Amino acid sequence: MGNQVKVGICQIRVETDKHTNIVKGQEMIQKAAAAGCRLIVLPEMFNCPYQSELFPVYAETYPGGPTIGMLAETAAREKVILVGGSIPERDENNRIYNTSYIFDESGKLAGRHRKVHLFDVNIKGGTVFQESLTLAAGDKLTLVDAPFATIGVAICYDVRFPEMARAMMLKGAKILVYPAAFGPVTGPLHWELLMRARAMDNQVFVIAAAPARNDMAEYKAYGHSLIVDPWARVLAAADEGETLLMVEIDLDVVDEVREELPVLKHRREGIYPDVNS
Ligand SMILES: O=C(O)CCC(=O)C(=O)O
User: Fold this and answer.
1) Looking at the predicted structure, is the pLDDT value of residue 277 above 70?
2) How far is the centre of ligand 1, averaged over its atoms, from the C-alpha of 2 (Å)?
3) How would residue 275 be classed by pLDDT, with cut points 50, 70 and 90?
């Protein structure tokens, strides 16, 4: 029998024009829904080039803004759970966050994740990025109850913190969704390894949604969106071009793996008390 759900990732190539990104996002969500996807995921900063100085310019405040409006309306029209990648969000105190808005099948806001770990790195001869120049950090885990499973949502650099994935799993997540935008330096080294590791450690599905590479962009996304099962097997993978990645997942596999290879039951929290999750 199984508990099957088709999931889709819209690997959008982000352009400079915000409206173009919104329209493309909507078209790809519609295509995924028409192909039977019930859970659809967009990448990190899908409406905005990944550049710190542009985040305040492209930011929107819930419930206003054309991107947020498109996400809510499209989720309701297509009757899908929509993890709307992320966009720059401006709060009432004028702080900007890297935020994922998640809408349910009726278009109601089901959750909102503000990226917890900001990407401030200086890799010699490689990537230099400082999100904290313009962004503030979130301080909460985000879990959403879908009809088929509890879903944990975190953003990009958040995946490097295994404690966070573990905490979401302990709160019941069977699917972890990571809207992300790795670059050409850490992408080839760590992207698949991290996503498969989080799936393996926590015996969950991992859905990692990346933007397609845009050669005109200052920050060249690595692409390679992935869907990984609780055995850490890659069920579907994209290359770096714009594409819709879809696959059917069977949620019963989560319980099967946890039964057959009971590492989660074998945890001995008393031996590692410093891990606070
Ligand atoms: O962790 C990485 O290597 C990339 C992270 C990133 O690009 C981000 O958080 O936006």
Assistant:
1) no
2) 35
3) confident
Which residues 6+ apart lie within 8 Å of 91 measured at CB?
Answer: 61, 97
pLDDT in tens, 102-137: 999 999 999 999 999 999 999 998 888 999 999 999
Task: Look at ligand 1, atom 1, and give the residue with the nearest C-alpha.
Answer: 157
Total structural domains in the chain?
A: 1
Domain membership of residue 272 (yes or no) is: no
Report if residue 15 sits inside a domain: yes
At 172, list the tokens.
């019941």
Instruction: Choose among 115, 114, 179, 111: nearest CA to 146.
Output: 111
**213 is a domain residue:** yes
CATH of residue 173: 3.60.110.10
Q: Which domain holds residue 217?
A: 4-265
6 carries an active-site annotation: no
Q: Which atom of ligand 1 approaches the CA of 187 most closely?
A: 3
- CA neighbours within 13 Å on the CB side: how many for 101? 28
Mean pLDDT of 173-178: 99
Please say if 156 is a catalytic residue.
yes
pLDDT (tens digit, 9 = 90+) per residue, 70-103? 999 999 999 999 999 999 999 999 999 999 999 9
What's the confidence (pLDDT) of residue 274? 74
CB atoms within 10 A of CB 273: 7
Position 54 in a domain: yes
